[in-house]
Design a protein that fits this description.
By secondary structure, this protein is mainly α. The longest helix is centred in the C-terminal third of the chain and has 24 residues. The chain has eleven helices and no strands.
Length: about 210
């Protein structure tokens, strides 16, 4: 049984130090800001952001999953680089396939696109945990794990709309704080779904990790 979305958000806030001006939250906000900046620069090239989206998403997932599991200290920005390096080519291909599949489903109609977006939501966390999986296998595993949890995930994302509106009113800067909040909540969501579906063995901290 998964926690309620309210409880998942509470766990995310606890992971982020419990307050938007805590160091834990500020460092997580920096991650969101860096990723957004890279995407913004690459978007100028037209397809740049599309090509590296998987790498950036795996890098982000590695940091937030590490925070949730207690493997990564809040200022462990190197975890972002480590996440990108786990399987650089695999993450790149995963990002491209993930985007293409969702785009194709969306072309059929908006609703199928939203459903598939939720179905594929765990792809990059899975790829982060199991870099040996192919891009298609990671997507397939996400579909399996999200069976029965797609609506819960959709409602979790909807619950951040108010936060995003407030963040946008703060000259848009506040959205980076909200993005960190969303990333932490999604990482907790993944951990609970993973435990419920039990697809993996226990994940051990990287060798030499010091908290």
């Amino acid at each position: 049984m998964l926690s309620s979305n309210y409880e998942i958000r509470a766990k995310a806030r606890a992971t982020l130090g419990g307050g938007i001006f805590k160091n834990e939250w500020l460092y997580a906000m920096v991650i969101a800001l860096i990723v957004s900046a890279i995407n913004g620069v690459l978007a100028v090239t037209g397809i740049g952001a599309f090509i590296v989206s998987g790498i950036l998403t795996c890098a982000t997932a590695n940091y937030f999953i590490g925070r949730v599991r207690g493997f990564v200290p809040y200022d462990g920005l190197s975890a972002v680089v480590d996440g990108a390096k786990k399987d650089l080519v695999g993450a790149l291909i995963t990002g491209i396939l993930h985007t293409v599949f969702i785009a194709l489903w969306t072309c059929l109609f908006i609703i199928p696109g939203i459903v598939k977006s939720c179905s594929y939501a765990l792809t990059f966390y899975i790829k982060n945990d199991r870099p040996e999986l192919s891009a298609n296998d990671a997507i397939t595993e996400s579909r399996r794990m999200m069976d029965g949890f797609k609506m819960k995930y959709f409602l979790l994302q909807l619950s951040f709309i108010g936060w995003m509106i407030v963040g946008a009113l703060c000259l848009g800067v506040g959205t980076f704080w909200v993005q960190a909040y969303i990333e932490a909540a999604n990482a907790h969501f993944y951990e609970e779904v993973k435990a419920a579906k039990a697809p993996f063995t226990t994940v051990l901290p990287p060798e030499g990790t010091v908290i």
